Amino acid sequence: MDHGIVADIACCIIAAWVVGVLCQVARQPLLIAYLLAGFAIGPNGFKFITEPESIRTTSEIGLILLLFMIGLEMDLKKMLGSGRAITITALVQIYGCVGLGWLFFSRIGPAGSGLEALYLAVAAAMSSTVIIIKLLHDKHELETLTGRITVGILVLQDVFVILFLAIQPNLKDPALGPLLEAFARVFQLVGAAYFTSRFVLPHVFKLVARQPELVLVGALAWCFAMSGLAGYLGLSREMGALIAGVMVSTFPYTLDVVARVTSIRDFFVTLFFVSLGMIIPLPTWDYLLWMLVVSVVLVITRLITVFPVLFRMGMGQRMSLLPAVNLSQLSELSLVLLAIGKASGDVSERTISIAAFSFAFLAIASTYGILQSDAIVRRAAPWLGKLGFPDLPATGHEGGPGEEEPTVFILGFSWTASSLLEEITREKPGLLPRLKVIDFNPETAKELRARGIPVVYGDISRRDMLEHAGVARAEVIICSLSDSILRGASNRRMLLQLRTLNSHAQIIVHAEKLADVAGLYADGASYVMTPRLLEARDLLTMLDAAENDLVGEMRAGQLACLEERREVIP
């Protein structure tokens, strides 16, 4: 069918919306919906659009805006201040996956050349920031140790993408001279971007801050100016857009810019992924076989480049395996990199199609993998021990002669437990020798042991771990974790299990829903914490303070109190 560009764009957007609604109902990533929509209306589907060239230029605008937004959302402080464990693990993961992937893809396939194998290996080394952040946020794990490690690796993967885009135009002629010249052009680009963003843009944005339209236009002008400069210097235009975003990511106006650019970016990015879906051929046994091969290679390389490194750093089985599981998918940027390679004549449509199939397959599989990661760790633990990766020793402190035996057990050490320990230290220091903590965060365990608190490293949902820790001798047992944070358990299951181990202890558990309180008491709880009621009382106090113009005094008192606290988890 022969359409004009307006009709083609309308067809793309309508198809993306219809399939997007269906994927939303099925709780699948929207990127899969866009790829499916493009396939459905493209030359290999219902042939609504047989010449995707008509919207390719428009989709390239979406690609530039996508990388600009990724740059805006990068945190330079996190990039420069990544911890040692994160930095070493990220370097091993990135270069290890690229090296292993290149060896496999260049010798076995599906790439047709060593250069194409390199593109595919780099693409397979990247993980999906969109999918990972969303799922970790839903699981309340972004601020956990595994969440911080995962996000830190993602940040350094983005840095690697910048470096790869710098040398990408010279990959066909990787001689030392052209590469040095390329890096010189990169320094020119970064220098110009830094100078402008440091000394010019702050004043310009401050001048137009009260004009929303000018803020939006100014952000887009900066994005395309840097993209154009990159093209003029012989570098990737997409790299220019990425650097443009990174350079203004620390501006006080960044959130406003992100909010205003997001809608227009989403429109063009939708077109980009729909147009990418148009070149996906009908699935054949060949494509499906290579999809499985690429997916298996990706998962295996993640495991062997992430788990052993973290394990050697004393993270234990759980904290070492979870980041590897979290990172086991292809990134949206993987498809972008391959599309850039295709535009340069380095990557075939067959490789992009296989990568697109792999992206969709892994996006779905890794979603279930991340949501069930705790069950995966429990099942893998015995096998890891047999393979020479025993977990950390359960007991980190044994009481000596004359020491008081712990009688107050804290199951799981999170924010509430950290604040409780601080209150005990301040108000009832005599209670400290009676405390014992059970938790599987090695960093927390190390800090607690430094403070003289006995810690048992282990999973609080496991009966054998609780028995080994001596829960049967406890007088008070506290579980301050909510059901949404507990992994593979709930407060009710914990309570029933604890009552079979210890019938006389005072057991304190947590309830998110008021409707659960009566049931927990019926199951044997001594007391049920309901934090929402405490927060409501605090808010009511604040309302009274607001009516009496005392908010400033309360805020000053709160800040003064926080300055004096030295909690394990700040």
Keywords:
single chain, mainly alpha, Na+/H+ antiporter like fold, globular, 570 residues, 6-stranded parallel β-sheet, Rossmann fold, 2 domains
CATH architecture of the largest domain: Up-down Bundle
- Radius of gyration equals 27 Å
Q: How many strands appear in the DSSP assignment? A: 6
Give me the number of helical elements. 25
Net shape? globular
Tally of structural domains: 2
Strand order of the largest sheet: 3-2-1-4-5-6
Under CATH at level 1, the class of the largest domain stands as: Mainly Alpha
Unreliable residue stretches: 396-402
Distance between the termini: 62 Å
Average of the residue pLDDT scores = 82
Q: Main beta sheet, described?
A: 6 strands, parallel
Structural class: mainly alpha
Q: What does the model show?
A:
With 570 residues, the chain is mainly alpha-helical. It has two domains: 5-382, Na+/H+ antiporter like fold (Up-down Bundle); 408-564, Rossmann fold (3-Layer(aba) Sandwich), CATH 3.40.50.720. The chain is built from 25 helices and six strands. It has helices at residues 5-25, 30-41, 53-72, 76-80, 84-107, 114-125, 129-138, 145-167, 176-199, 201-208, 212-232, 237-247, 254-278, 285-312, 316-326, 332-343, 349-371, 373-386, 415-427, 442-450, 463-469, 491-501, 517-522, 531-547, 551-564; strands spanning 408-411, 435-439, 455-457, 476-478, 506-510, 527-529. Strands 3-2-1-4-5-6 form a six-stranded parallel sheet, sandwiched between helices. Helix 5 crosses helix 8 (145-167), helix 6 (114-125) packs antiparallel against helix 16 (332-343) and helix 7 (129-138) runs antiparallel to helix 8. The termini are far apart. Residues 396-402 have low confidence and may be disordered.
